[in-house]
Write a structure and sequence with these properties.
CATH architecture of the domain at 59-156 and 225-345: 3-Layer(aba) Sandwich
Strand content: 5-15%
Mean pLDDT: 83
CATH topology of the domain at 59-156 and 225-345: Rossmann fold
Strand order of the largest sheet: 2-1-3-4-5
Number of strands: 5
């Protein structure tokens, strides 16, 4: 009986060791068949050692230098409500938007640092659009499937952003995940295999030659404009933990943004967009969120920035919306007029 039990235990241990060791074979696979760029060091070493990354896109720097804008607009799809031509007419100067849908504060920080500051331009204001607690929620749209968007605006090294990320990921689960990635090269494996798996259905349907055309057609059919309207917002209700400003601000990019703006003599103006309830009325705010916005405003203004809060604006509420927080295209010019009026009213 004892021998039988020992045999079962030994078999279980062997199975566990084999299961843990098998993924290590990917390292051999990388050396034989993996992509050449697989060893590129990460600009976020807190979460990964290396992986295949998209190249930095320098085009917006050239655009900024060419237009020498009076206003720069940064954000995700929320900032798409600004009509650049109309705003340019109202402020009597060029307006340059640098937008990317489904991004967060980490992306916006890198846009400001690596595009606006790096270009050498000195706009009167840089507007950053955000929802509720986005500015202090570093993890919102930063990792996993959003990593490639970050690649295009990141330098070879981003030590300030990585330091914030390291502080944010100090919990045991994130340390465990980082250890697994170092041992098994999970991110590198995903970046190598995922494109092949995604392209396989297209090859089955239309063959190898038609794959690119089918993927291009699918991307055009399912882009952001075609996916609107949506019945619900793509950001959930803010939790009270997220709405603790003082607990989150030092692990966010907000201090980095304010420091950069002061260092280079630039003015940052943050615009909080209006979010609605399911019935189309204004979404009620918890006491924690009310305190958060009070503390956020005090911090931004103390650090030399500006805050425009659209949440309780009746004129903004009267605009047509596609969903709970995206202003419909036919309302963009009207929204821009409202925004220009608010900008003019800000103290100089």
């Amino acid at each position: 009986m004892v021998t039988s039990t020992r045999s079962v235990v030994a078999s279980f241990v062997i199975l566990v060791v084999a299961a843990a060791a098998t993924p290590l074979l990917w390292r051999a696979a990388f050396s034989l068949r993996g992509p050449q760029a697989v060893g590129t060091p990460s600009y976020l070493p807190s979460v990964e050692e290396s992986r295949v990354r998209l190249p930095f896109e320098p085009g917006p720097i050239l655009d900024l230098q060419y237009w020498n804008p009076k206003i720069v607009v940064i954000g995700d799809s929320m900032a798409g409500r600004v009509d650049p031509q109309r705003l340019g007419e109202l402020v009597e100067g060029a307006v340059v938007p640098v937008l990317r849908a489904a991004t967060g504060s980490g992306y916006w920080y890198l846009v400001f640092k690596n595009y606006v500051v790096a270009s050498g331009v000195t706009p009167d204001r840089t507007l950053i659009f955000f929802r509720d607690t986005n500015l202090t929620d570093l993890m919102f749209r930063l990792l996993e499937e959003h990593r490639e968007e970050l690649d295009t605006v990141a330098a070879a090294e981003e030590p300030e952003l990585d330091a914030r990320l390291a502080a944010r990921l100090s919990g045991p689960w994130y340390r465990f995940h980082a250890a697994l990635d170092r041992a098994y090269a999970m991110e590198r494996t995903r970046s190598w295999l995922e494109p092949a798996f995604l392209a396989w259905p297209a090859r089955v349907i239309v063959g190898k030659r038609g794959t690119a055309r089918l993927q291009r057609t699918a991307n055009e059919r399912f882009n952001l404009e075609h996916l609107r309207p949506m019945p619900l917002s793509d950001m959930s209700v803010v939790s009270d933990n997220d709405a603790d400003f003082h607990a989150n601000v030092e692990m966010s990019v907000l201090p980095l943004l304010m420091s950069l703006a002061r260092e280079h003599g630039l003015k940052l103006c943050f615009v909080r967009v209006q979010r609605r309830a399911a019935d189309g009325g204004l979404r009620p705010e918890s006491p924690a969120l009310v305190r958060y916005m009070r503390d956020l405003r005090a911090y931004i203004e103390r650090e030399g920035g500006e805050l425009i809060d659209d949440q309780h604006d009746a004129d903004v509420a009267a605009l047509p919306y596609d969903d709970l927080d995206h202003v419909a295209r036919e309302g963009w010019v009207r929204y821009t007029d409202i925004l220009a009026r608010k900008l003019k009213a800000l103290p100089r």
